[in-house]
Structures are given as C-alpha cells and as structure tokens.
From TrEMBL:
Protein name: SDR-like Ig domain-containing protein
Predominant place of localization: secreted
Coiled coil: none
Keyword match Hydrolase: no
Gene Ontology terms describing biological process: cell adhesion
Record keywords, A-Z: Cell wall, Peptidoglycan-anchor, Secreted, Signal
InterPro entries the UniProt entry points to: Adhesion_dom_sf (IPR008966), Fibrogen-bd_dom1 (IPR011252)
Subcellular location: Secreted, Cell wall
C-alpha cells in the first residue's frame, strides 16, 4: 500500500498594487533643513524636500517588474521627467528598483535580485525636491497635505500658505536618494539628479542642505 499526503504552503502576496500602507514615515523639510510642523505657514513659490520611508514586511512578497503605486500629495508639483529615481535598500545599500512620480502618484518597479522571484523584508527611502502647485491651494483655510505613516496611511499635515510676489514655475530643481553600507553606517551614498524639469538656466549655482536623518 502506498500512502501520501497533500499539503500546501501559503505565501502572502501584496493584496493590491498600492503600497502606500507600507510607508512608515514621511516628512517635509524647508530648504534650510527645518522639518515642517502641523499648522506652519509656507510660501507658495518655495521648494520643499519631501521624504518617504517604506518597510515591506517579510510576510508580503512583491513581484519584480510589476508596477506598484503609492499616493503623493496633489499639492506637490514634482515630476520625475526622463530620469526615474533609483531605489536602494536601506540595509544593503544596493539598488532594488526605480520610482517615477507623476500626477499625484508614485510608480515603483522593483528589480529582480539574483534568483529571487519575489521581493520581501526590505526597507527603502524615496526623496525629492518639489515646488507647489498653486492651483491646488486654499489660501483662506490652508491644505491638509498627505503624509502617510505606519499608523495611518491617510495621515495629513495641515499647512497654511503665504502668496509670493515673484513668479515660480513650481518645478523641482533636484531630487536625491541616500543609501548606506550596513557593514559601515558611516559609508553613505547619495544619488542626486539636478534640474528634473530640464529648464535652461544661465550661470546656475546649486546649493543643497542636509535635512533630517
């Protein structure tokens, strides 16, 4: 007599392609490196640094090559243009994918890493500088800016607005991404893309200020 058993192993996959819920922290900095707090008043023509931290748990398996999206506040005017942002693992410092941001949505495509057919248990950060879309602003009451965190994927930060007298395109001047060597946390790697909007400038000087973290 031959006996046998049939069993299956369930592997959790992302229940949708929306990975907003895996953002554990997000924040906005001014050009001087000050983190913006709830109730602050911002100038509508200034540029601001937006940062997100994602943590994908080991119980979730993402498919390389598939598009995953997350929500971006519509007030941010940033577009990645022809140069997508490179995503590096916070733990290893190695590239794991790319992200493009357009029209209030970030689209992440993960690389295939070696023989692994899925990606899980990974943390990464995304950061960019952005102007503000003044057509989306409520100058009387202010705006609730979407900044998800680990407790609330719909978390918002209320900011008020001050009109500027000077003209501004509202386009991002630069975006940057940081990663570090897990064996040597003092070994940092920055990827910086300047002039995402591909505008023409004469005698331009770029200055950047290190923000939070």
């Amino acid at each position: 007599m031959v006996t046998f058993s049939i069993f299956s192993i369930n592997v959790a996959h992302a229940d949708s392609t929306d990975i907003t819920k895996y953002i554990t922290e997000s924040w906005i900095n001014t050009s001087a490196g000050r983190e913006i707090k709830d109730g602050d008043t911002l100038t509508d023509s200034s540029s601001y640094e937006v940062s997100y931290i994602f943590e994908i748990p080991d119980s979730v398996h993402l498919t390389p090559g598939e598009e995953y999206t997350f929500e971006v506040a519509p007030e941010f005017k940033y577009q990645t243009g022809n140069s997508p942002i490179i995503i590096d693992s916070i733990e290893t410092g190695k590239r794991i994918g790319t992200v493009e941001i357009k029209d209030g949505k970030g689209t992440v495509v993960f690389d295939r890493l070696g023989n692994d057919v899925t990606l899980s248990d990974v943390a990464f950060g995304i950061g960019f500088w952005t102007g503000i879309d003044t057509s989306k602003l409520d100058y009387d009451k202010g705006n609730d800016i979407l900044l998800p965190n680990e407790n609330d994927s719909k978390n918002t930060l209320h900011v008020n607005w001050k009109k500027s007298n000077r003209n501004s395109t509202g386009q991002s001047m630069l975006s940057k991404q940081i990663s570090y060597n897990k064996d040597d946390p003092t070994d940092l790697t920055w990827q910086i893309v300047v002039n995402n909007a591909e505008e023409t400038y004469d005698e331009a000087i770029i200055r950047d200020t290190f923000g939070k973290g």
